[in-house]
């Protein structure tokens, strides 16, 4: 148990009953979000914006994938910015913020989802770092790379705001230099035709890019609660993240074109150019801020369930846990489950944005331990989830079959232009708006309980 006395003034509080210092400037936050936008997954996962079929064969040409990625990232960046603002205004982490949206006890449902997905992504990041390190060093003990990555991740989470400031001062500069260097080197290579093929699956590719941006929504307020202003929080999250994700994915798509769209070889072009291994090592080292964000936000989510648990103890335990998982698990079969969990947060953002900016949130949400249940917001969220799953049932066994059967029962066949993310966001937002308007008409002076 910690007290306010032993809490550093410019660091995140140890428990949720302590105030959050407003110490992060626009540039601090921009550096943080910019680094999250540049990921090894932007290279290894670049093929996802080419709308691969069930066999993994891309259905979009590289140029269409670039445009789809730009469009999806731009929309996703705005959504991420919208998720950043409420945290600054309320001064609480993301899952605690949901007490105001759903009520304290109902907020535990998305909290558990978020804990599961953050542990999964944290584990996946350690595996990606270890695999990339093996390529840099030409082999070596995989377990050692995992452990080193886990230790670095854990140290960063103990001093989260200090880590954000370090990213601004040093890491961001190194990443920018590495990106410029690789753009120069890869564009000098003989690229194949980037325009050959159909654009008919454009929105599937855009949806994939949008989903990557949205994946950070459940943790945005964990950091923006320390922002000095709402404008700084929105601008840093939407612009800095969006720009660097676009830059990283375009680079990944160029590398993919050079290896005939074989995603298993996408790291090759980076290492085959002069000084490529050195500059690629910058990306590998920087990847630790992805696992750091996942672990720290997992701790913040757990604190919504147990507010007085010390976040330092939580992050040490979680750092050790994802390290053990990364050593023991094969993540290939888990990717579909992670995508499924992430999909529930897209419509949730639609509910949050409309209620916060247009209705109850403007006057201030109740985020106390006794915040009353708001079942109407759960209804709006469920409508959005159903929309998403009917358009994109995913690949998780029984869940996918259930929604495929629902498609058949409703005689509904999704069109290629349908974006599951955009439409579920819109449906959830419209239902929330309808509920809010009805409540305002029937009970203008009361809150929804």
Radius of gyration: 21 Å
Outline the biggest β-sheet. Answer: none
Instruction: Specify the overall morphology.
Output: globular
The chain-level structural class is mainly alpha
Any idea of the CATH topology? Hydantoin permease
Give the CATH class.
Mainly Alpha
Termini separation: 33 Å
Architecture, CATH level 2? Orthogonal Bundle
What's the CATH H-level homologous superfamily?
Hydantoin permease
Strand content: under 5%
Order of helices and strands: HHHHHHHHHHHHHHHHHHH
Ranges where pLDDT stays below 50 over 5 or more residues in a row are: 1-5, 445-449
Number of domains: 1
Number of strands: 0
Residues in helix, %: 55-70%
Overall mean pLDDT score? 88
Oligomer: single chain
Give the count of helical stretches: 19
Short note summarizing the structure:
With 449 residues, the chain is mostly helical. It has helices spanning 26-37, 40-44, 62-90, 94-102, 108-137, 142-158, 160-187, 202-214, 220-224, 230-258, 268-271, 276-286, 288-305, 311-328, 335-343, 345-358, 375-391, 397-409, 420-442.
Structure write-up:
By secondary structure, the chain is mainly α. The chain has a single domain, classed as Hydantoin permease (Orthogonal Bundle), CATH 1.10.4160.10. It is 68% helix and 0% strand. Helix 16 runs parallel beside helix 19. The longest helix is centred in the N-terminal third of the chain and has 30 residues. It is globular, with a radius of gyration of 21 Å. The N terminus and C terminus are likely disordered.
């Amino acid at each position: 148990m910690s007290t306010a006395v032993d809490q550093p003034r410019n660091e995140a509080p140890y428990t949720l009953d302590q105030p959050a210092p407003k110490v992060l400037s626009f540039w601090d936050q921009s550096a943080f979000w910019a680094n999250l936008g540049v990921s090894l997954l932007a290279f290894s996962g670049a093929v996802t914006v080419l709308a691969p079929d069930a066999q993994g064969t891309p259905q979009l040409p590289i140029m269409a994938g670039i445009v789809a990625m730009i469009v999806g990232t731009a929309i996703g960046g705005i959504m991420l910015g919208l998720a950043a603002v409420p945290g600054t205004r309320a001064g609480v982490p993301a899952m605690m913020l949901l007490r105001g949206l759903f009520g304290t006890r109902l907020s535990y449902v998305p909290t558990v989802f978020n804990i599961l997905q953050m542990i999964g992504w944290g584990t996946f990041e350690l595996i990606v770092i270890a695999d990339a390190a093996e390529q840099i060093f030409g082999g070596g003990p995989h377990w050692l790379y995992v452990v080193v990555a886990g230790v670095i991740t854990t140290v960063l989470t103990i001093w989260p705001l200090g880590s954000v400031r370090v990213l601004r001062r040093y890491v961001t500069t190194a990443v920018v230099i590495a990106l410029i260097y690789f753009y120069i080197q890869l564009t000098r290579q003989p690229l194949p035709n980037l325009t050959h093929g159909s654009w008919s699956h454009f929105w599937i590719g855009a949806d994939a890019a949008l989903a990557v941006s949205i994946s950070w929504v459940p943790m945005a307020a964990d950091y923006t609660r320390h922002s000095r202003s709402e404008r700084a929080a929105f601008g840093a999250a939407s612009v800095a993240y969006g720009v660097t994700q676009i830059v990283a994915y375009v680079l990944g798509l160029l590398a993919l074109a050079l290896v005939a769209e074989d995603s298993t070889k996408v790291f090759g072009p980076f290492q085959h150019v002069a000084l490529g291994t050195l500059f690629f090592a910058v990306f590998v080292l920087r990847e630790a801020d992805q696992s750091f964000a996942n672990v720290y936000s997992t701790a913040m989510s757990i604190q919504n369930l147990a507010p007085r648990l010390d976040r330092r103890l939580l992050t040490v335990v979680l750092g050790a846990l994802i390290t053990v998982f990364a050593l023991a698990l094969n993540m290939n079969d888990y990717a579909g489950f992670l995508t499924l969990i992430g999909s529930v947060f897209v419509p949730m953002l639609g509910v949050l944005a409309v209620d916060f900016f247009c209705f109850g949130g403007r006057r201030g949400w109740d985020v106390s331990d006794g915040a009353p249940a708001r079942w109407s917001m759960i209804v709006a969220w469920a409508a959005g989830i159903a929309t998403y799953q009917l358009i994109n049932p995913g690949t998780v066994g029984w869940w996918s079959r259930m929604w495929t059967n629902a498609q058949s029962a409703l005689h509904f066949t999704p069109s290629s232009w349908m974006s599951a993310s955009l439409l579920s966001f819109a449906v959830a937002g419209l239902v929330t708006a309808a509920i809010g308007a009805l409540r305002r008409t029937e009970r203008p002076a009361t809150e929804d309980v």
